[in-house]
Amino acid sequence: MLLTLAIMAGASAFGEQPPEANASQVDADRLSEHFRDFVDEALDEGLLMPKETDQPASSTQLFRGRLQQAEEAQTPLELSVCGMDRVSGFQEFKDFSTYEDLILWRQQRLAEDGELSSVELSKAYIATGLYAEARLELSRVEGDESKFLYAIARLLEDSQVPDIEVFETAAECGDENRLWLAAAQLAILNPQGAEMLDGQLMAFRNLPHQIKVQLGSNLIPVLDRMKRKLLAEKLLAAFEPAIIKRTRGLSFSKALLDRDQAVVRQYLAYPETRSQAAAALVRFGFKVDPALQSELVDNALQDVQRLPENANVRASIQTMLNDMDDTSDYTLLTQLAKLSTLHAPEMRDLLSEQFESRLRKDLMKTGETANLTAIGALVENDALLRERPESGDIFMAASAGSATLGLKSLSDFLGAGMQTSDDQISAQAALAFRMADFDTLHQLSRTAQDNPDVSRLATMSAIMLQDKAWLQQAGAHVPLDTETLVALIECDAAGGNWLLPSTIYSAVERVDEPEYRGRIELILAMRARAKGAGKREIQLSSVPDDLAQIEASLNSNAWGMP
After folding, report:
1. Which of 230, 471, 473, 536 is buried most deeply by CB count within 10 Å?
2. Which domains does the chain have, with CATH numbers?
3. What is the maximum alpha-carbon separation in the chain?
């Protein structure tokens, strides 16, 4: 008989995990599952006696692989008093695979007991994949058991979790229910569910076939979204290759884990996997149709609105954003900011934090072209970010980027009320010069006269306007580096009025850099011809006056007008 029991213990690898009271007991239970089954079966047959017990173990057990109530009372373990610590046990239905199995089971139970409770029948329906029938049966009864089973049916059928507290309460009643709490947490995109599931792999493997297939099909794509690929692969390893191949949800999950773009795209054709396939392609860096991107945003908004009141919204939104490309990312944040359900201060903080992080990534990268999508999103949601004092540099970067793109009014709007940086002022000056906005340049030359870009562009503008007073004021602050000198004399030549003082041209003549010499000599020749055309004979009587004028010019600054 012991040999027979040993064989039976080896065949019971898919038995349920016991509901122990703490994590260490759960670990011990998982590691010694076969041995516990062997001992429990021996107790059931009366071949072994519980230690320090005078009464033999009865052959009638409450549940498979468990000691009787009388025996449990002699152990230090405390039974849950909530009445649903075992409700999640589906081991009676582990061999169910077809509707015929359900019919046969029901006939046998009715023949033996004469009736079936709604709870028992609903569990059989769930194990067969008949979730609507299970919910209908459960609607006829009340109590914690029926409420929990109803929640399991919703979770398996469409990954919906109307009330996470149902699962949390069940997990407190029995550790084996932690598998369902983990699944519910994952359904609402809470990463804590992944951590919990990692300790419930044995319970997952011991589920009846149909439940295991459905739950695996639901959870593996979510784990992949959360970048928990290793855990997802552990779930997939619980299935035979033939089962994976003939089950759409599992075959799709395998394609996700294999990163097979071609196969994943095939699942865009199926309504039940369309959104998940599109989101996966985006995560993998592949392009999808804009209509699919809009669908992803709509689905994400619906998911947020369906979150239970006490759900971890922060974690859920972060997971949703992982499925978005740059454009849809901003679209989702914009739409989320409009939801009345997210107007609470903590939710506003969450959205502004996510928004700032995304904008900083796009706008604060040195040397990159300004991101129009990011700037547009900032304009639409500027109030959301102005609530964060530390985000001033983002507004300045967006303002400078707008100026670079020639969007003056947008640049002014984004820079309003912000302490401008030298780079932003330079960008504003460059934009004003390109748009011939001389009033703005005139103002900048007074308020930011130490900015070399402002001084250079203001001086060139004064030359173009033949404004000698402005030329003298702006030119007094212009840096006399080679590039600036060449730009100034070229502007002077283009105007044809030769307003720059001779000291500037004297400085230019001393430039010996080969890359500038050709341009300089051309301008000097043009100036010489222009000056030569205006030569006049000087009378000896006027020499003293001319010398006095030259002396006065030399005693003034280099930007004295000729």
Report:
1. 471
2. 2-224 (no CATH), 437-562 (1.25.40)
3. 144
